Amino acid sequence: MDVRQLLEAVKTDEIDIDTAVNKLKDLPYEDLGYANIDHHRELRNGFPEVIYCEGKTDEHIIGIVDVLLKKQSNVLGTRCRKETAEKLKEIYDNVEYDELSRVLMIKNHEIKNRGKGTIAILAAGTSDISVADEAYYTAKFLGNNVERIYDVGVAGIHRLLNKRHLIEQARVVVAVAGMEGALPSVVGGMVDVPVIAVPTSVGYGASFNGLTALLAMLNSCASGISVVNIDNGFGAGYLAATINKLK
């Protein structure tokens, strides 16, 4: 329950003042000792706090999930281990886990569509799908219609052009690519909407674990392209959702 809902509940006598005070005492954040849970994130940013699971113990992740579910209906976690997801499935209902992207979702209520249009997620190659899917599930969880268009890299540009009608209908495009990172530049010259470029660590030795793709995207001659960090599908999906909800 967010602050607005809480105040409405007090106004209609569904919740008494003492109960409301107890709920408000943990705002704006709740100190667990190992984590400060930001309950006001959605009030400030429009989207609730998301758990970055990598580097956290199973016990810490379970503790954070437990606290978040007391304040909000749905929880999103990124870079989650399969073993952690299995433990969470034993404790909570409605746990969904995508092994390829390592995205964890707990959905107790239907996610309302907040986006004004469609977000298109493009992956240059099949090897880029894990990062592309992180962007896809993030944008979906944040309330958007999302279209996946995969294996459309510049090595066979006819594949990309064959999907041009779908790409041009999007309000935001996320272009995910490794190797030389050329896909966002090509897409940036095709559309009149924001393009979010995501370099991946896919490629041979001189790709330097995604650094080559990152620098290529930062130096793109096409206008209207923004670039997130290497393998940061979550950041791209979040940015796309933020743009897509603007009037």
From TrEMBL:
A Pfam family reported for this protein in Swiss-Prot or TrEMBL: AIRC
PANTHER family referenced in this protein's UniProt entry, alphabetically: PHOSPHORIBOSYLAMINOIMIDAZOLE CARBOXYLASE-RELATED, SLL1489 PROTEIN
InterPro entries for the chain: P2CMN_synthase_LarB, PurE_dom
SMART domains cross-referenced by the UniProt entry: AIRC
PurE domain residues: 117-246
SUPFAM superfamilies recorded: N5-CAIR mutase (phosphoribosylaminoimidazole carboxylase, PurE)
Name listed for the protein in its UniProt record: Nickel pincer cofactor biosynthesis protein LarB
Superkingdom: Bacteria
